[in-house]
Amino acid sequence: MHNKSFTADGQVAIVGGRNIGDEYFGAHEAMNYADLDVVVIGPVVKEVSNEFDLYWNNQSSIPMAALARQNTTPEQFAAKRAALTEYHTTAERSAYAETVRDSEFARHLRSRNVSYFWGRATIVDDHPDKVTTSAAKIETHLAPQLRDVVGKTKRELFLVSPYFVPGKQGVDLLASVHQRGVRVVVITNSLASTDGVMVHSKYQLYRKSLLEAGVELYEIKPTAGALHERRAGSFRGPGGSGSASLHAKTFAFDRRIGFIGSYNLDPRSSKLNTEMGVLFNCPALAKRLPETTERDLDRNAYHVELDGNRLTWVTREGDKHVRYNSEPQASLWNRIQAQVLSWLPIEGLL
Fold this sequence. Notes:
The protein has about 350 residues and is an alpha+beta fold. It has helices spanning about 45-55, 75-90, 95-100, 105-110, 145-150, 165-180, 195-205, 205-210, 225-230, 265-270, 285, 290-295, 295-300, 330-340, and strands spanning about 5-10, 10-15, 30-35, 35-40, 120-125, 155-160, 185-190, 215-220, 245, 250-255, 255-260, 275-280, 300-305, 310-315, 320-325. The radius of gyration is 21 Å and the shape is globular.
């Protein structure tokens, strides 16, 4: 289960790619993820709530008590409670908490001045039975719902996916979209920024085919993720470390329809995990993703190009365009790992 949703009082829901952990909120000292969520109100909140109930009541859901191997004594419980209270008190006084309280979004919340984009929104999701049935039974899958929207795209397909393993079918699909005169842009992690070298090992096998098909391919720098998050959304994080990895999963179709959710463009999300997201027809919001991302994309990412039969990575550093002939900023160990892993028959699991 890879779904992520947060619903309060059946009135407001948050859906996106963010897990609950320090590194997903710009609070980790070593490395943070650049993620993206959408806050929704109106009838779509009921859809989010219904999806939660569907999973909660599914036969695959197991009560936590059924997994307990030993009982917690009152003394152990009291000790854990005291430790949690102490941690909470310390966290409230931290520089991070102060930054959150002073963030633009927090100020809007306190003044009850949160602005919304208005449009039609619906939830697209995998049925929980997906994990117990054959991957060939796609009636339980989210992917066909997005593929229908791709088929209706006429001008631009803008895809952000931190883990991107399109497979031959995916390359053929994007090639056919481009052949219709549609601009196709894909933004994913570079080898230097990814936390999944194993995924990158298979993604790298499709880069040449994608470029030959006319796809514009960008790989995020390890220092650009936090910048992307702070510009794309309202939350201004504390900055965290100098290293960040892209984790947002979001697509824009003709800058009119958008998707924000947990779905990666890889075999795991397509066939193994259960996923969900919000699909919305709202041009004012849908165009915001490509507009804000492209503003500094030449600085925050490497544009992967074909120079003859060789890949090159082009970016702006200062006032100059710089060209690399191998995976920029990636360590020798990561390059070796990616090469060796690319030989293994594991693509269907990634």
